[in-house]
Amino acid sequence: MSSRFKLAIFDIDCTLILTGGAGSKAFKMAIEELFPDSTSFIPKDYLPHGRTDLGIFADYIRFIKHREPQQNEIEFIKTKYLSLLPAEMKLSIKKYKVLTGVKSLIEFIISKKVLVGLGTGNLEEAAKIKLESSGLLSYFSFGGYGSDSSDRSKLLSIAIKRGSTILGEKVKPSEAIFFGDTKRDISAVRKIGGYIVGVATGIETVEDLQEADLSVSNLEDIRIKELFN
Known about the structure:
Blueprint: E1 7-10, E2 17-18, H1 22-34, H2 53-65, H3 71-91, E3 97-98, H4 102-111, E4 115-119, H5 124-131, E5 143-144, H6 152-167, E6 176-180, H7 183-192, E7 195-199, E8 214-216, H8 222-226
Helix pairs in contact: 1-3, 2-3, 3-5, 6-7
């Protein structure tokens, strides 16, 4: 029996891997390059989890300058961030971790003839940099990224279109299963009509993620594999 899903689409940070804060450090260094001594203006309760990179860049500028960001500022921060991220990843390598159950679940999904991709707020280049040390990158044949859109639901729709192109058929959102660790992931998938598994491997708990179709403590939960039978 074939799976009801044709695509499986994964978030990256706190769903597949932990990077030890490398991304946040590179973000703040890039901002400081453009606006020296400015990151203290970023509210301590501002949480980037579930946001897109472009959205975070824009939010930081709003906090610091009290105005809307200019495109040249976004481009400067983007370029600087991508240049700083590889070094920060190396510095954080001891804290780098592939999360529980990730590799075995991906291999199981592939065995079910389901195409595996990414749906992440990371810029495409940043996504590849972050996954480089994981041994997972080769599993993902398509994706939707924060460089495609600052709107998470739109980048997930783009991921579906790219997966559809590879399969040579139009995949409906209801034929895609998504994995994410935040309420923002759930909200974005709800907007497009996909199936969402909330994974409590980030800052939000299983209870926080109850609006998902299935909420689990990690990707080893046996109920996930049952979805593909």
